[in-house]
Design a protein that fits this description.
78 residues, mainly beta, Rubredoxin-like, 4-stranded antiparallel beta sheet, 46% strand, binds zinc ion
């Protein structure tokens, strides 16, 4: 799934398991995957090369396509 930069609409590069980077405006983002029903952060489950998500609140397996993808700015100015 290809995500776009919220600032400049460029395609984001994968820079880690849940990290994305925009080369156009040099922004870093954390990718949060949330339950579409309760909004909890989903746990990533890997089985047989496929990725699924687990919601602890719903106690249910969620598919990649039903989850909400939320980009959070990762400010490196610490
Ligand atoms: Zn950008
Ligand atoms: Zn849930």
């Amino acid at each position: 799934m290809q995500l776009l930069c919220p600032h400049c609409q460029s395609e984001l590069n994968r820079s880690g398991e849940s990290k994305r980077h925009c080369e156009t405006c040099h922004s870093d983002f954390i990718l949060n995957i949330e339950c579409n029903e309760c909004g909890a952060i989903l746990q990533r489950l890997k089985a047989c090369g496929a990725v699924n998500f687990w919601c602890e609140d719903c106690n249910e397996l969620k598919s990649k396509s039903s989850a909400n993808y939320k980009l959070v700015a990762n400010k490196s100015s610490t």
